[in-house]
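FORM 12-B: Structure-to-Sequence Request
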């Protein structure tokens, strides 16, 4: 069977990270999250992190020139497959990805688009708590940790991301509508888009994804 090369597209808080973690656990598909890569760069104070920090804190997209080069080195072997979480986020990123994959003799096999209403997103993001140490994600109501404030996976401290305030979520939603939504028709032309009801519980969303692989 050919490798599963997937893209997860959707507004902030739609569940991309949650489903990527399951795709890794159940189907062994490595997750490439540009958000996680950038947050690590900010923590490490690398040149990329120092430049990206201000954009991320405002809820704006980081410029394409900083993002596009991050992906190729992380793709891994051709037969392993991958899940792109949070990339591509602009048409320029989608075009650069197509060029890169065709040069490598690879292609995207499926694009999952998560549909979630804005009020649900604000509710999810304001209750999200992320592990400082391993990046695992909980929600105070929908996916609470066994011990309050502590990550189930590694025991690290759970914190709120600096861009997870209601005001910044609104800026991020605007960035999705004005810059990211246009990647959906780009892939729809290829007949590989599958839309999901992202408001269903995580297990149900995952079943739909698994069945479509
Ligand atoms: P990034 O980290 O990619 O953030 P995002 O796209 O805004 O997505 P989130 O991580 O907020 O949400 P998610 O969809 O992963 O949802 P999750 O599974 O956590 O990017 C951050 C920033 O980095 C950007 O704003 C930008 O500045 C920069 N950036 C990143 N990539 C870039 C790029 N390519 N180009 C330019 N800039 C870039 O779920 C959210 C919460 O809901 C959790 O608490 C979870 O437990 C809960 N939940 C999940 N699914 C369900 C469900 N089905 N039912 C109930 N609760 C659920």
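FORM 12-B RESPONSE
SEQUENCE OUT:
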């Amino acid at each position: 069977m050919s490798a599963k090369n997937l893209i997860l597209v959707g507004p902030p808080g739609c569940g991309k990270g949650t489903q990527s973690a399951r795709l890794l656990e159940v189907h062994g598909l490595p997750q490439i999250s540009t958000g996680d890569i950038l947050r690590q760069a900010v923590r490490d104070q690398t040149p990329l992190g120092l430049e990206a920090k201000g954009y991320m804190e405002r809820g704006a997209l980081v410029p394409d020139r900083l993002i596009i080069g991050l992906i190729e080195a992380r793709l891994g072997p051709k037969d392993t497959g991958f899940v792109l979480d949070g990339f591509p986020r602009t048409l320029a990123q989608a075009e650069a990805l197509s060029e890169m994959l065709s040069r490598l003799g690879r292609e995207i096999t499926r694009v999952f688009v998560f549909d979630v209403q804005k009020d649900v997103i604000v509710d999810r993001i304001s209750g999200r708590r992320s592990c400082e140490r391993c990046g695992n994600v909980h929600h105070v109501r929908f996916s609470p940790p066994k011990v309050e404030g502590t990550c189930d996976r590694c025991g690290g401290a759970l914190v709120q991301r600096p861009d997870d305030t209601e005001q910044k979520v609104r800026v991020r939603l605007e960035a999705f509508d004005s810059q990211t939504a246009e990647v959906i028709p780009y892939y729809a032309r290829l007949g590989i888009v599958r839309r999901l009801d992202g408001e269903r519980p995580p297990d149900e969303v995952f079943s739909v994804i698994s069945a479509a692989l």
